[in-house]
Amino acid sequence: MNQTALDNLTTVLPGNLTRNDVWNVSLLVFDGLNFSAWQNSSGFTIANAAPLINITVGSVTVQETQLVNVSLNASDIDLDDLTFTTNLSTNITIANNSLSALWYTTITDAGEYRVNITVNDSSLIDSFTINITVVDARDADGDGNPDFNDTDGDGDGNADGIDFLFGNLSSVNASAALNLNITINGTMNFSKAYNGTVPVVFTSNLSNATQTIIEFNFTFNTSNILDLNNITINYTVNGSSGLAIRGLKRQSGNFTKTAYLDKRNTTARAVCIKDADVSLQNISGNCDAPNETLVSCANATSGQYACYDTGTRYRITGLNHSAVIERCQDVDGDGYGTGCTSGSDCNDNSFSSTNTCSSGSSGSSGSGGGGGGGGGGGGGAAIQAGTKVSKFFAALQAGTPASTAVAKAGMAVTGITFTPMVDGAGVTMTVRVVEKNETPHLNTNMVYQYFNITFDKLKPSEVGSATIAFSVNASWFSSNALDEDTAALERYDGGWQRLGTVLVQQDEERLNFSAQSPGFSLFAITAGKAKAREENLSSMPGPKENETRGNATATAQKTGQVGQEPTGRQR
Q1: What band does 177 get if pLDDT is binned at 50, 70 and 90?
Q2: Total domain count, the chain
């Protein structure tokens, strides 16, 4: 019979217990008249009690060279001797009779650390994890004493309290190729204690001549310290000139700078200004993102900004932070737009057949519009030799296809997708209609249009396969008795090579094709005479010619854009 009222009424004081002792308990029962026989329990061992760590601080943040001090505390009901350790023993020492974990950080210890603190009674353990952040502390003069603790942070001999110029030429973050120089009030003395307003000029000889790239007036005082360590300058003249100035600012809201750019982008006569502390890569392609302003460089102003054409360079004034690059605003990608050298665009939100905004241009009709022609195209092909379109690619990545649409009056090409074999920056691709075949090899078929495709910064071997979309007037085929099924794109590479060409869409006015090319050079859109069809038709009783032609073209499917796998008739 279980007497629950008698449960847990026996107590043994801790002082009578020894860890790892084996105990036996003997019991007898008395019913008021008689005692039972003794009964012995099975043996049980006095177990060790684990220590309990008592640390409540979960994270610590210090700057380099500052002390990390974590107070240690743990308890053990067995009153065992306790030992503390960490997983960062090379940096952290246990001191003050195990009351503290100390880390004397150095000038190179910046980082995030996850430290496990363990207490051990020689048998069992308890642990606690603490996150320690050591913040990178700037040491401008490299003396091992960080600036926050240094009285002469840049080591120029001037106490920081009276030194309003911090750092020297080597402090500016700029590529060695820039060959940067800085003059302050006409000198290169960085150890002088400047006070008041003086001119500051940054120069570079990246363009094989020493030229100013940034200039401004700076007021040196306790509220305005020119810290050269904070400044990053990126300057490029590849394809389009661009300049980004980061970390150069002042308390005063009216502090502005003047920048200079070499004129390198032949398709633009404007600059895009992004007044934010950003790099050149953050400027949008159409200069329509936040903090961006497109400014014409025809000696014009736009708000606080102005851009002046000095001949070989642009002078841009009114800049705050800022990043600036040569650019024109060409939303529809036809080469025309705001600030574009080709001219403005009547409708920059869609492809226009005419983009010069001249009076009377109202699009094309009939056989003379759209695809154009060249090289003896005959009826239905308008000669448009010299017509060209340039497309600018801010960045190309090796192995990643790049695409662009083309919508230019007199040009048959409507789109191009190509795969660069190398990385590229500021690359311009130009498509130009050519008047005639200037190669030693003649085309055997009639030519609708010759054109070539070139790159300013990529060699032919650096451009891989390509898909070229083009459009041909339907009237060209009928006017010249040509067989639509023979239409193809040919490429000249030591001889004329017929490329795989597919009809992807057609209507009463136009036939749209897509062709695969292994590279770029001179191209010709061709077609052959409809001899076989005429012979077949003349020998067949009954069906009318237009019925046969309709059946032959019924498989042409309306698909989409350059770069898609075309469906339709293989030429």
Answers
A1: confident
A2: 4
The answer to whether residue 87 is domain-embedded is yes
Measured in whole angstroms, the distance separating CA 536 from the mean position of its chain's CA atoms is 59
Which residues, 6+ apart, have CB-to-CB distance to 5 below 8 Å?
Answer: none
pLDDT at 446 over 80: yes
* CATH code, domain carrying 469: 2.60.220
Query: CA–CA separation, 422 vs 403, rounded Å?
Result: 16
Q: Does residue 69 share a domain with residue 38?
A: no
**Alpha carbons 135 and 361: distance in angstroms, whole number:** 65
Average pLDDT, the chain: 81
Residue 170 lies in a domain: yes
Domain that holds residue 77: 52-135
Residue 115's alpha-carbon distances to 19, 51, 63, 124, 470, in angstroms, are 31, 19, 17, 20, 65
Q: Rounded to the nearest 5 degrees, what angle is found at the Cα of 442, between the Cα atoms of 526 and 462?
A: 75
Same domain, 38 and 62: no
Which CATH number belongs to the domain containing residue 97 in this structure? 2.60.40.10
What is the phi/psi pair of residue 495, to 5°? Answer: 170, 160
- Going by C-beta distance under 8 Å and a sequence separation of 6 or more, which residues neighbour residue 495? 441
Q: Which of 33-42, 109-118, 369-378 has the highest average model confidence (pLDDT)?
A: 109-118
Cis ω for the linkage preceding 26 (within 30 of 0): no
Write out 132-201 in H/E/C secondary structure: EEEECCCCCCCCCCCHHHCCCCCCCCCCCCCCCEECCHHHCECCHHHCCEEEECCECCCCCCCCEEEEEE
Same domain, 204 and 91: no
* Rounded CA separation 230/247 (Å): 5
The H or E element spanning position 74 is: strand 74-75
User: Looking at the chain, how many residues does it have?
Assistant: 571
Domain limit, last residue, from 327, 346, 377? 327
C-alpha–C-alpha distance, residues 459 and 422, integer Å: 10
Is residue 401 domain-shared with residue 486, that is, in the same domain?
A: yes
Q: Which of these three, 46, 62, 77, is where a domain ends?
A: 46
Q: What is the widest separation between alpha-carbon atoms in the chain? A: 137
Whether residues 75 and 32 fall in one domain? no
Identify whether 339 is part of a domain: no
Closest to 74 measured CA to CA, from 56, 54, 94, 58: 54
| Three-class SS state of 15 | helix
What global pTM score does this model have? 0.50
Positive or negative, the CA dihedral 561, 562, 565, 569 is: positive
For 343-349, the CB contacts below 8 A with 24+ separation are none
Cβ pair 389, 408 in contact under 8 A: yes
